[in-house]
Specification:
This protein is an alpha+beta fold. The chain folds into four domains: 30-127 and 487-534, Immunoglobulins (Immunoglobulin-like), CATH 2.60.40.10; 131-182 and 237-347 and 405-485, Rossmann fold, CATH 3.40.50; 359-400; 545-580. Helices cover 38% and strands 17% of the residues. The chain is built from 16 helices and 17 strands. The protein has helices at 2-5, 7-25, 146-160, 197-212, 242-250, 290-305, 316-327, 349-355, 369-376, 380-400, 403-428, 449-459, 474-485, 514-517, 541-560, 562-592, and strands at residues 49-56, 62-70, 82-89, 105-108, 111-112, 120-123, 131-138, 168-174, 178-180, 192-193, 333-340, 431-439, 464-468, 488-493, 503-512, 525-527, 531-534. A seven-stranded mixed β-sheet has the order 10-9-8-7-11-12-13, sandwiched between helices. The chain is globular. Mean pLDDT is 84; it is low at 1-40.
Length: 601
């Protein structure tokens, strides 16, 4: 019986192995550069578009699908403009209904044909499918002027508006630190630093309380307008009040020059990540001096050895995935929406490298002795033009010297390894990334900053949109959120389940109203890529009884405790052996006992 109690640990190991395999398979068969491909190398998003986002076969032969249908503008299509939708066998090549591939079920403007009462098509929210969403937003201050900060706040407010009843959300806000919202008492009025010891301890306690199944007592006192959370609620997880999060975003801090979207490379106090010792400070967390940084590094190494939490160890993407994987409901739609310029790490990297250029590039240093006297003899306007020319030449020199190229290559390798894990986890947990990239004009940024966001969206079934930093992001965020919330829910019962092999494959074929297609050839038939899943295994009655028996034994062990459970096990075992021995003796007497002789009384 002891062996049985160890099975959950084996299951956990199998799950971890599965996640690792999925992360590997997300990029297997591709060379490393494929994971850092530029948007031009990724498949272009053509509109209009149709795709199957998820499929549920747990109630086989009843099938449930979540699908996205976008018109020529990239907006979700209303049912009245969905002239026809056919569900086809995805294992066959034909992408339109035909004799070779007849439709399993068909809908016209949302109504099932052939009076199929088992088939339904409607908006996700009306079908009772909830949405679990984490919004990841950049909140660093350096190089982000006040006007841009206000545009980001406006976009966050717009993102929460389409959410409805039953939808749950959280906000991950990142700069030098990573923040998120909680429902904890004393922490429910602001975004909290996820790496602070007091927050970590409280969130661990909240998770244990959620798993206990009992009442939730760690939140604020219940009121008429705000009742107590239901049992099972993780107060550090997804929140049901989107309006509260929108209000918190209005006061979220913009700070620092070290955004931790991906947290690539060593932490900020590791001087090895810089071309030289940079000037200035990092939002009060440490001065950029060798002495200060050596002390900061030693403090954090000592804390790690003591098993204490260490600052600057996580990323905004890690935190968003953790919240969704830990608290997302299996039947709900799960998504991460990122609003960011994609920058990660020290935003003044080029400037720091320019302050410490390699020897061949010193000739272009405006502060160098060779140029100081020459610049002093120029007019102010001439100095401005010449300084700009020298800086341009210096950057070109550093690129020729491969100083910046080597640094970008190192960061790309680190991103490649992390992205493989994130994509694997997202696919395993049915999480889709969506991104709105803010293209920063006039700043010396890496060409890969936005490519990384594009990649995560493309590889997990989401979409990527881009805006200029001179344009409000509110429209792009609103369009992204309408896509995330505007899915279609489809249900039907397969009419010939016995004819299907071990796997079931489905494909959508759609014809839209020409008014919303916005294409050169209106009235064309759109088809999704097929989605294939293995059919669920149906256990025999014997196996079901065995599972019920093991489950009962585990509950008894949890109820009486391990020691009493072992004693009871021995008593039951000995009793069963004695009973078996008694039965054997009685059978032996009956079979081999002496019979009376014939003719005798």
């Amino acid at each position: 019986m002891t062996k049985r109690t160890h099975w959950p640990w084996a299951a956990a190991a199998v799950a971890c192995s599965a996640f690792a395999l999925l992360a590997w398979s997300a990029t297997s068969g591709q060379a490393a550069p494929a994971a850092v491909a530029a948007p031009s190398q990724l498949p272009a998003v053509s509109l209009p578009q149709v795709r199957i986002d998820s499929m549920d076969l747990s109630g086989w032969p009843h099938v449930k699908l979540l699908a996205t249908v976008l018109d020529g503008r990239g907006a979700p299509v209303e049912l009245k403009h969905l002239l026809r939708l056919d569900i086809l066998d995805g294992s066959k090549k034909a992408s339109v209904a035909s004799k070779q591939n007849p439709a399993l079920v068909s809908f016209e403007k949302g109504v099932a044909l052939d009076r199929r009462k088992d088939a339904k098509l409607g908006p996700r929210a009306e079908a009772g499918v909830g949405l679990d969403l984490v919004l990841v937003v950049q909140g660093y201050a350096s190089t982000v002027e006040p006007l841009m900060q206000q545009r980001i706040r406006d976009a966050v407010a717009a993102a929460f508006k389409p959410l409805g009843k039953g939808d749950r959300v959280n906000l991950v806000w990142y700069g030098d630190r990573v923040y998120q919202a909680t429902g904890l008492k004393n922490f429910d009025t602001r975004l909290v630093d996820v790496e602070k010891r007091e927050v970590l301890d409280k969130c661990k306690e909240a998770l244990l309380q959620a798993h206990s199944g009992g009442p939730i007592t760690l939140g604020p006192a219940a009121t008429k307008d705000n009742p107590a959370p239901e049992p099972g609620t993780d107060l550090c997880g997804l929140q049901g009040d989107a309006g509260k999060l929108a209000a918190l975003a209005k006061n979220a801090p913009f700070e620092g020059a070290f955004p931790r979207l991906f947290n690539l490379g060593p932490p900020f106090y590791e001087l090895t990540r810089y071309c030289g010792t940079p000037g200035g400070a990092l939002s009060g967390f440490g001065n950029f001096t060798k002495e200060e940084y050596s002390h900061a590094k030693q403090e954090r190494e000592d804390a790690a050895l003591r098993g204490e939490p260490v600052d600057f160890d996580t990323s905004a993407i890690d935190q968003a995935l953790q919240v969704l994987i830990r608290d997302g409901k299996p039947a709900n739609r799960k998504a991460i929406v990122v609003l960011s310029d994609g920058r990660d790490g020290w935003v003044w990297d080029y400037t720091t490298c320019a302050e410490h250029p390699p020897a061949p590039c010193n000739a272009y240093d405006p502060a160098g002795s060779a140029n100081t006297g020459r610049l002093a003899a120029m007019t102010d306007r001439q100095q401005l033009v010449e300084r700009h020319r020298l800086q341009t030449e210096m950057r070109a020199c550093m690129e020729r010297d491969q100083l910046l190229t080597r640094r970008v290559g190192l960061m790309q390798k680190l991103f490649h390894d992390k992205a493989a894990q994130w994509i694997g986890l997202a696919r395993a947990a049915d999480i889709h990334f969506y991104a709105v990239g803010i293209h920063r004009t006039g700043l010396p940024t890496s060409p890969f900053d936005l490519d990384r966001l594009h990649l995560l969206a493309a590889r997990t079934g989401g979409t990527y949109r881009e805006v200029d930093d001179n344009m409000p992001a509110i429209a792009a965020v609103g369009r992204t959120m309408s896509e995330v919330t505007g899915q279609l829910a489809i249900e039907f019962t397969h009419q010939a389940p016995d004819d299907v092999p071990e796997k079931f494959s489905a494909r959508l074929s759609v014809r839209l109203d020409p008014k919303v297609e916005a294409t050169e050839n209106p009235g064309t038939q759109l088809a999704s890529e097929p989605l294939t899943l293995a059919l669920p295994l149906h256990k025999s009655i014997l196996h079901q009884l065995i599972d019920v028996g093991w489950s009962l034994l585990v509950k008894i062990q949890m109820l009486v405790g391990y020691e009493v459970y072992v004693i009871l096990g021995w008593i039951v075992t000995i009793g069963a052996m004695l009973l078996s021995l008694l039965v054997i003796v009685l059978l032996a007497k009956k079979l081999f006992g002496r019979k009376p002789a014939a003719g005798k009384a």
